[in-house]
Amino acid sequence: MSVKKISLSPAQINEQLQEIMNKTALAENYRLEAETVKTYNLIVNLEKSLPAEETGLSNYYLLFNAWIRWLADWKNYSLNLMHRRRLLGHLNQQLGVGKFTLQIYPYAARLYSYKLERGKPLIQLHEALDYMTEYDCKRFANFVRRQRWGELRQLVAEYQERTPQAKEMSAFFHETKANPTHENRTRGRYYDLETVFSNCNQRHFGGKMARPKVMHWSAKVNHSTMGSYNINEDTLMINRGLDRSDVPAYVLDFVMYHELLHKALGVKTSGSRRMSHTKEFRELEQRHPDYDRAQAFIQKNAKRL
Q1: What percent of the chain has pLDDT over 90?
Q2: In this structure, what are the phi and psi dihedrals at residue 177, rounded to the nearest 5 degrees?
Q3: Domains in the chain, ordered, with CATH?
Q4: Which residue has the higher pLDDT, 271 or 267?
Q5: How much is the CA Rg of the chain, to the nearest whole Å?
Q6: How many angstroms separate the CA atoms of 46 and 69, rounded?
Q7: Which of 24, 70, 95, 294 is 20 to 30 A from 175, comparing alpha carbons?
Q8: Cβ-count burial of 167 within 10 angstroms (0-12 exposed, 13-18 middle, 19+ buried)?
């Protein structure tokens, strides 16, 4: 099928939002309500033009479409703007107004990045960082100016650990990336996902769990995400890094169990928030007989998988 042309790119949306926030910061008593609403209306109109049928779209388009639909909710749009206002204020102080470019978008493989583009810093952040506090934003800007990347990584890691909303948002956008046309590539070098699923189904679900429509190994090794389940497309993915002879079978069983719990329980909503790791989910997850040692193995070995 032909891919619908994006009339407003992520970079263009970010440019407009940064301009609004910079004007607000420079003129504290001047609220740019008209400009804010105008950009929001552009996003809403773009959301209405997105294709209803997404089969065959690339991961980029699936993620872009999910982001636009998310921003089209005024609460989410406002959250994005409030985070920009906090962060831009500190980045402007540290780097200078107009001396850098800030983009906030659910990037596929990272939570943040810093690079020079034509000699000008380009700072990219994932939407999952929207809940950063004023203090976190101040430290973030300071670490960026001083290029203290180790401290910046630690800041983001601590933020993720204490902010459940960040994990939920990251998981939500990650779920949208699975391509529904992906082949059932279940056979790995050491493990076959068909066997892993069948054994897990019998052990923990009494053999009553329906097989996901699509199961496959990830295209690349991922050191932070061991698996994912896309509830909209019934697609289950397991990190290719686990397909190793030195990865115990109980680890694969636990990861499969974790993802099948998502299939069994679905996604709960609270206001505009989507919650996949609920209290019920965590309680059931911890009932896995190898929960502790599987978690310990993953935490110890994630960086080398």
Answers
A1: 38
A2: -80, -20
A3: 10-163 (no CATH), 193-301 (3.30.2010.10)
A4: 267
A5: 21
A6: 9
A7: 294
A8: middle
